[in-house]
Structures are given as structure tokens and as C-alpha cells.
Design a protein that fits this description.
- It is built from 24 helices and ten strands.
- The chain has about 625 residues and is α/β, with parallel strands linked by helices.
- The protein has two domains: about 270 residues, Rossmann fold, CATH 3.40.50.1820; about 300 residues, no CATH class.
- A six-stranded parallel beta sheet has the order 5-4-6-7-8-9, with helices on both faces.
- The protein is globular.
Length: about 625
């Protein structure tokens, strides 16, 4: 990235082509651009649409969105309706050519896959896996045995027919390049079965399935659910679109069996057979958006005006501030009436103060102001001045997001103002934030689920007032003072010890930015000095509870998201327990039995014991079979 002063920045989100090797061509301006992928259409049962009427419907939908249309695309639509009825020559099943990589490569691929899926979700809308309607699975199971579904039944049960269909499709494909797979109904099952059998040189830019029955157990052909626990390495992303009243889709998506893919619900107003029709799906804007994005990329680039500033990456503190402000603006959009007016007023002051703090800190450190921060500035003295909203946040790795998002979920991002919002406002804002950061909306849901579970674990008996624990504030300041700064030096969840201590020096733990940095650091802190500081009588049980809660929430979130567990969390809690018990034994020998200090230490011991007990019971301790 360059460091020249910039007045404008092109913003179009992550490219879905970034990870793929490209053949190149030039556009009219002489700029190298990727070749357009081939579109592979896989039909369902019936005659297979020999007139290709699906192309006309999809073409109109693409043109309406500003895409070039199918005239600019090579389309492959193999006809295999006859092959689904029987076979003449015995054939072997095509071998699996796409193997799962080693652990490290698999982790990198999964992260890249989730980033691309998150970017697509930000364009389409909220992931929605739906819920199966009562009797829908039973009805679908019975329908498969009817003559109408004979072709589907043949594919699922007759190995020769399955091999014949897959080979016919593979024979129609090139050996190298890029394709987009579009599969309807049984074609979605064929697509899932095919993707790992493609030539190694052929990459899938995107896979779009519509009206898929894959969530039903009868369609688990060759144990696809087990063999595709992780996304194939040749697949960029997979979105499944399901119509509300489509009986074949059983009124739900397929992420219940392939949790790494994206489900999106549409409602065309059609019912039963018409709701399942391929033309009904392809006429929908959402389906065309997914197909068009896979084939052509973005239809246009939005130009965002920036104030003076340098086009340089955000550091840890700046990213924290910009992300928190974006989160607050997303929550603001869900408010109404007096509450919204008060929230807007508070947010004006918080945003102005945050930009000012960053300017002062950067000036003292000799660091320029990034454009992403500079564009948020406005004249607070002008009551009519428009408050610029932060642009949709850029991608953040899930490992780094755990600490930051846990802090966002439990901190007051409009501090020092206090406005109690409906819980769903923050939840939905967090879901949108995680989606636009290409983390996936489920990450946002899991953040609050993990935070709520950690709070329930730690407050089960005495039901402490957690409303007072929304910010560590003075308690954190005291903790840092007691440990001589080791509390932050031990926490490397956002950018490392040096960056943390420097950030705190620039902002202090009491403001919005410093509070979030402190919370993020303590959510990933190690043992040592911080264990001694938490055991000290200068640190309250409430402060210890906040630190333990956030650390436990981070561990729960990691498990929910199938991230590699942080073994230091267990060490962190055990070291704290040892120090607190040691302090309790030292004071208990001579102090009154009812001494407030001993009662405070007893509360601390109980809090840590609850956290350790939960980790044992949920396989979160080192060496447990359930840890990843």
C-alpha cells in the first residue's frame, strides 16, 4: 500500500478472485483483468430444460443488476436426464482429485474461505438457515419413493448411474481455468458430489445452489457430510438460496449439514411446485447477484470521499477506535424516537473525542493520520455538522477478532455516556459488523452467546450486578498500577505487548479507546504479574470478575468458532487461583473471620473456581479430547 496523500479511495470490498492463479487479458483501458469464468449449470430431475429457458431468465436478471449478461460468458449446461434413468456401459466412479491439505494449510484455506463467504454475505444479506417445518422431512422422505423422483432415487442408490452422470459432466469441462457452478434441486446434490472430483487445474470461483434437498438425510450420497466437513480447497465459496415455501428444500437451507457455507432465504410468493421451479429462483435478484458476483465480480466501484490523510494501514489502537465507532453507528440505525436522538448526540461527542485523541497521540508519536481516521473528523462546535460514518470495516483475522469483539460486546462504546439500548440492537449491530468484516454473521452471534454464557457461569449463585461491570475503568487502572504495567504487557490479543503499553500511555484506560484496548488486552493476558495483581487486596472482586469473564468468553468463542484453543487460558486461571489462595492463607491466619478482605478473596476464589470447573466440564482444558 502506498503512503501518498490521497483525496479519493476506491472501495469495493474483498475480491473473490484474490486467492486464485489467473490467466490475464486487458480491458479497453489496457488494464489487466481476470478472464471471465465458465458458468456450469446442473439441472434437476425431469427433461433437463433442453430449450435452455433458464438462460433467458438468468440473463434478464443479470442485465437488470448492471452485469453484462450471459452473452459474455461461456455456458456449459450438460444434459443428463436420460443418464439418470439407466445405464448401458459399466463405468467407474470418478476419483476424488481434491485432497484435504495438512493442518496449517487447511487453517489458512478455511480463514480465506470464511473471508470470501463473509464478503458475499455482506452483499446478499443475513445468513438464514431456517428451521424445518413439522412434517416437512417426513413428507420429503416419502416423496423420494414416488415415481416423480425416480431420477433422484437412481442417482442416490445406483452407483453406475451416478458414475455415468458425473463422467458426462466432467467430459464437458476444460482441464484448467475457472468455473462457476450453478445447481438446481438434484443438480445441487450433483454439484456437491462433483466439486471434489474436478480436474486439479480447474478452480471454482463460486458455487450457487438453489432449491437444494441436501439437508435431508436421504441425500447424503456417499456420506458427503463426512467427506466435506471442511470446504474443498478448489472452492472459493458456496451460497445456497432457498425459497420460503419450496417443499424440496424442506423450508430450510443446508448449512445444518455443511456449516461452513452460506444459506440465504428468498420469498418469491410462490407455493409448492412453483416455489421450487428453477425459473422462479433465477428471476430473483439475490440469485442473480450471487451468480453475477461469481462470474463478473463487482458491477461497479463506489468512490468514497476522504478527508486529508495518508493512505496507510491502521495500527491496533486506530483499528479499535474505528471498529468501535462503526459498531456504534450500526446500533444507532436500529433505534427510534428520543432514544435515537440521545444516542446520536452522545455518539457525536464520542466520535469527536476519539478522533482528537488519535490526532494528539499520533502527533506526539510522529505518526501520520490514516485516511480512515481523518475522514471521521467534523466540527463539533457546529450543531448542524454532519457526523461522517465509518466505512464498512475491512477484514480482520478471526484470531485477532476474538479479543476485540469480546471487548466490544462487554464494553460501553459510547463512554462516558450511559444509554441502555434494547439488547437486540447491539446483537444485530454485532452480527452486521462481523458480516461486513468477512468474519461471517455467525461469528457476531457467537460473540454474544459466549459472553452471556460466561456471565451465567460466573454469577450462577449470588447474581452479582453485572451492569456495574460494563467497564473496568478505575479497577483496571488500579490493576495496571499494582502490576507495574504487566497486566497489559501480558496481553497480546490485538497487537503485542509493546503496542498495548504504548496505546495505553497514549489514551489511558478510562476513555472509550483506552478502555477497549485494555479490555482486549486483558481478554488474552497471560499469568505472572497479572495473577499477582488480581489477587492483591487493591484489586476488587468485581475487577477480577470482569477479567475472568472476558477470558472465559474468549475461550467459549474459540470453541464455538472451531478455532485452535489458547492453552494459556487454563494456565491463566490456575495461576490466579494459586495467587489468590496464597494471599487468603497469608491473611486468614491472623485476620478476623469476618474481615472484608477475606470475604473479597473468597469471592475471587469462587469466581475462578467456576471458570475452571466450566473449562473442565466442556473440554476446554489442555489435553482434552474436545479441544481443537
Amino acid at each position: 500500500m502506498n503512503t501518498n496523500t490521497s483525496d479519493f479511495e476506491l472501495f469495493s470490498g474483498p475480491s473473490l478472485f484474490d486467492h486464485l492463479p489467473k490467466s490475464r487479458r486487458q480491458n479497453d483501458d489496457g488494464v489487466a483483468v481476470p478472464e471471465t469464468p465458465t458458468l456450469l449449470m446442473l439441472h434437476g430431475v425431469g427433461a433437463g430444460d433442453p430449450d435452455h429457458s433458464w438462460q433467458g431468465t438468468l440473463n434478464r436478471s443479470l442485465l437488470a443488476l448492471g452485469y453484462p449478461g450471459l452473452g459474455a460468458v461461456q455456458v456449459i449446461a450438460p444434459q443428463y436426464a436420460h443418464a439418470l434413468k439407466g445405464w448401458d456401459v459399466e463405468q467407474t466412479l470418478p476419483e476424488v482429485t481434491i485432497k484435504q491439505p495438512g493442518r496449517d494449510d487447511a487453517r489458512r484455506h478455511r480463514r480465506a474461505f470464511e473471508r470470501r463467504t463473509g464478503a458475499l454475505e455482506f452483499r446478499l444479506g443475513r445468513h438464514d438457515h431456517g428451521e424445518v417445518w413439522p412434517g416437512a422431512d417426513l413428507a420429503m422422505g416419502m416423496a423420494i419413493d414416488l415415481p416423480t423422483f425416480g431420477q433422484a432415487r437412481n442417482y442416490l442408490t445406483d452407483l453406475q448411474i451416478r458414475a455415468q452422470v458425473l463422467r458426462r459432466i466432467l467430459d464437458s469441462l476444460p482441464d484448467t481455468g475457472e468455473i462457476v457452478i450453478l445447481g438446481h434441486s438434484l443438480g445441487s446434490v450433483v454439484a456437491a458430489d462433483l466439486v471434489r472430483r474436478l480436474p486439479p487445474g480447474l478452480r471454482v470461483t463460486g458455487m450457487v445452489t438453489i432449491g437444494s434437498p441436501l439437508a435431508h438425510g436421504r441425500f447424503d450420497v456417499d456420506k458427503l457430510r463426512d467427506s466435506m466437513k471442511e470446504p474443498p480447497t478448489n472452492l472459493s465459496w458456496w451460497v445456497n438460496v432457498w425459497n420460503t415455501y419450496d417443499p424440496v428444500a424442506a423450508h430450510r437451507g443446508v448449512s445444518s449439514v455443511f456449516p461452513w457455507m452460506l444459506d440465504f432465504r428468498i420469498h418469491t410468493g410462490a407455493y409448492l411446485k412453483q416455489a421450487h421451479d428453477a425459473l422462479e429462483y433465477l428471476a430473483d435478484e439475490s440469485v442473480a447477484t450471487a451468480v453475477g458476483y461469481a462470474v463478473f465480480g463487482s458491477p461497479s466501484k463506489e468512490v468514497a470521499r476522504l478527508e486529508s490523510g495518508l493512505d496507510i494501514p491502521l495500527d491496533a489502537a486506530e483499528r479499535t477506535a474505528v471498529t468501535a465507532l462503526r459498531y456504534a453507528h450500526l446500533a444507532k440505525a436500529r433505534l427510534a424516537g428520543d432514544q435515537k436522538e440521545r444516542f446520536i448526540g452522545a455518539l457525536r461527542h464520542v466520535q469527536a473525542a476519539a478522533v482528537k485523541e488519535i490526532r494528539v497521540r499520533n502527533h506526539l508519536a510522529g505518526r501520520p493520520i490514516p485516511s480512515a481516521v481523518a475522514r471521521l473528523a467534523f466540527d463539533l462546535s457546529d450543531p448542524d455538522a454532519e457526523v461522517p460514518e465509518p466505512l464498512p470495516s475491512t477484514h480482520l483475522d478471526k484470531e485477532a477478532a476474538v479479543g476485540l469483539f469480546t471487548a466490544l460486546a462487554s464494553e460501553n462504546v459510547i463512554r462516558p455516556f450511559e444509554i441502555v439500548l434494547p439488547k437486540n440492537a447491539w446483537h444485530e449491530a454485532m452480527t452486521d459488523l462481523s458480516a461486513e468484516m468477512a468474519l461471517g454473521s455467525q461469528f457476531g452471534r457467537d460473540v454474544f452467546r459466549a459472553t452471556d454464557e460466561a456471565r451465567d457461569v460466573l454469577t450462577r449463585s449470588d447474581r452479582l450486578d453485572w451492569k456495574k461491570w460494563g467497564a473496568i475503568g478505575a479497577g483496571a487502572a488500579a490493576l495496571i498500577a499494582v502490576t507495574g504495567g504487566l497486566a497489559l504487557a501480558a496481553g497480546v490479543g490485538l497487537a503485542g505487548a509493546a503496542a498495548m503499553t504504548t496505546a495505553l500511555a497514549g489514551f489511558g484506560p478510562g476513555g472509550m479507546i483506552g478502555g477497549l484496548i485494555t479490555a482486549g488486552a486483558l481478554a488474552s493476558a497471560g499469568g505472572g504479574g497479572i495473577a499477582y495483581g488480581l489477587a492483591s487486596s487493591d484489586t476488587t472482586a468485581e475487577t477480577l470478575g470482569v477479567v475472568v469473564e472476558r477470558r472465559l468468553a474468549s475461550a467459549i468463542l474459540r470453541k464455538e468458532q472451531r478455532l485452535e484453543m489458547d492453552a494459556s487460558a487454563w494456565t491463566f486461571f490456575t495461576q490466579i487461583e494459586i495467587e489468590i489462595r496464597r494471599e487468603h492463607e497469608r491473611l486468614d491466619e491472623f485476620s478476623d473471620a469476618s474481615a472484608p478482605t477475606l470475604r473479597e478473596l473468597a469471592r475471587k476464589i469462587e469466581t475462578v473456581e467456576r471458570a475452571l470447573r466450566y473449562m473442565r466440564e466442556h473440554a476446554l482444558e489442555p489435553g482434552s479430547a474436545g479441544t481443537i
